[in-house]
C-alpha cells in the first residue's frame, strides 16, 4: 500500500481553482489541476517540461515568438527554460491537467527508448494527440486515487509517447557575440549574488564592463527577459526552494528581496499558478508522507 498524494487546493474568485501537488509514486514530477478564468501567467519559465492537457475552454500563450492557441482536447507543450505566458482564450477561461516532469526524468525515458542523447525539445507548442491527452488525465486520476502502480505506469507510458511522437533533439539557440554573452552571464551571476539588493542597470553594466543598452540587449537575447524581470523570476524560484525547506512565506519574501509577503504572493501566483502558502502545504504533506 503506497502513501497518499500531497495536495494544495486553492479556491479563487470567478470559480477559479488550482491544485498544485505531488505524489511520492511520481518522483521529480509536479502536477497541476486547475481552472482559470481571469488569471494571467506573466512571462516565466520552468526548470521542467510542461505537458498540459486542456480539458475545457481555450488557453492562449506566447511561446518562442508566437501566440499559441490550445483548445479543449489539445495539449500545450513547453520546453524547460523556455519563456512563455498563459491566459484565457475565451470568456469562460480554460481547465487543464498538467504534468511537469524533470529534465532527468525525460532523459531517463528517452534513454530507455534508445533515443539520441542530449536535451529533448518539443516539435511544436500545441499538439492534438487523444491518446496522450487521455494518458495525462489517467495519471492524475490514478494519483488522486492513490493507485501507485497505475500512476507510475501511466506516467511512463505518457512520457514515452511524448518522446516518440512529440520530441526532437534541441537545436542550439542563437546567441549574441562572445562579448555580449560574457557580459550577460556575468550580470546574471551578479544578480544571483545580490538578489535581495540588486544594483541599478548602470551599476550592473559598470560591474561587468559593459554599456547599459548593449548589456540590456544581450541579456534579453540570452535569457528572454530584461534584467529586472529575470530578477523577479529568480526571486520566485529562490522563494520556492526556501518554502520547500520550511521557511515561512513572509520570511521567504523578505529573504529574496520582496517588500512583503503580498508582493511575493502576487508574483508567485502569476508564475507558479498558486499562492506560496498553498504550494508550501503541498510540499509539507508529501515530505511527511514520505517519511
From TrEMBL:
Keyword DNA-binding attributed: yes
| Family matches, as InterPro entries | AraC-bd, AraC_XylS_family_regulators, Homeodomain-like_sf, HTH-like, HTH_AraC
Q: Which SMART domains match?
A: HTH_ARAC
Q: Does the keyword Transcription apply?
A: yes
The signal peptide, as residue positions, is: none
> What keywords is this UniProt entry annotated with?
DNA-binding, Transcription, Transcription regulation
Domain (HTH araC/xylS-type): residue spans on this chain: 185-282
List the protein's name. AraC family transcriptional regulator
